[in-house]
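Collaborator request, handled under Task 6.
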Amino acid sequence: TGSGINAEYGGDREIAENNLVQARRSVVVGREATLFLGLIKRFFQDEHVQSARWLRRLEKANADSPLVFSLAGRLARHDGRVADALALYERALAAPHFDAPQLRATINYHIGQCHFAENHWSAAAHHLTTFLDTTRGKIFRPFAAWRAGVALWHTGKRDDIAPLYKRALPWVRAHESYDAYAADRMARFLDTGGFDAFEEAWDAAEGLYEAREKKEKHSSCSTAWLEHSSRLEKEIILLNSIT
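Structure tokens returned to the collaborator:
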């Protein structure tokens, strides 16, 4: 699969696709090749139906694969199907013989983001802090820390936020926009000692809007979309009353 992946990162998707098509026949790397090929078709060629068909086959053939179900969860979240994404992520975490600590940590990050988008503050705080405590990588950490603090604020565990933010600020990477935004918000919190009423409403609305935007893109007349629209409208009314 290496030649296919290297070609993809090199920008030649046609070569990557041809190599991955060949690799799909392999007993050793066929699953991974199908995953990468499905991603190419989904995000670069807009062949959503083919990509979804392959993923469903992989789910059936790899019932105990954290990799397959975590990817399926990521795609469900991208489509705005947050409940489906959470179920797929939980299935990935429950897989037997799951000995991949970094993947487990990353799944907790995505679960936390799903709950944040639904304003499920306690669950968001739990999974985001679990990610921070277990990840070995640098990616996601400052943004996860900031959002974990927001969730802790909404659950009343406000004394836990300042120590978390002080620990997280050194993680900020130069020239990374999400890190910079998180750093600004964390520094402001440490300077003022809390989130003001506007920030409370803004962060809740941001999560709801993030989820609704994805739902709107893929299923604008769904019950979930209508529910998010109603909750978002309430937060916008609150924001207007504050400003």
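The cover message to the collaborator said: "Confidence is low (pLDDT under 50) at residues 218-222. The radius of gyration is 20 Å. Please let us know whether this matches your experimental observations."
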